[in-house]
Write a structure and sequence with these properties.
Elements (H helix, E strand, L loop, with lengths): L2 E4 L9 H5 L5 E4 L2 E4 L10 H5 L5 E4 L2
Antiparallel strand pairs: 1-4, 2-3
This protein binds iron/sulfur cluster (2 copies).
The site of one iron/sulfur cluster (SF4) has 14 residues, from helix 1.
Length: 61
């Protein structure tokens, strides 16, 4: 299964990943993006592209 990883130290809380993920994988909690729905990820990589902080990585099998 694909792992979606947010580096909380790098996350700037912009919310772009929440707005752009078609599978609602992310949620904001205390101004940080957290992964709440990893099993729905369809590996589109939109989150990686929109995260200017470079906080998101995908680990695909
Ligand atoms: S796009 Fe990146 S910086 Fe913005 S909330 Fe998501 S993980 Fe954080
Ligand atoms: S790769 Fe696509 S579906 Fe998966 S978490 Fe990122 S934006 Fe959402």
């Amino acid at each position: 299964m694909t792992q979606v990883i947010v580096d909380a130290d790098k996350c700037e809380g912009c919310g772009e990943c929440v707005d752009n993920c078609p599978a609602d994988v992310f949620e904001m909690q205390d101004d940080k993006a957290v992964v709440v729905n990893e099993e729905e990820c369809m590996e589109c990589e939109s989150c990686v592209e929109v995260c200017e902080a470079g906080a998101i990585t995908l680990e695909m099998d």
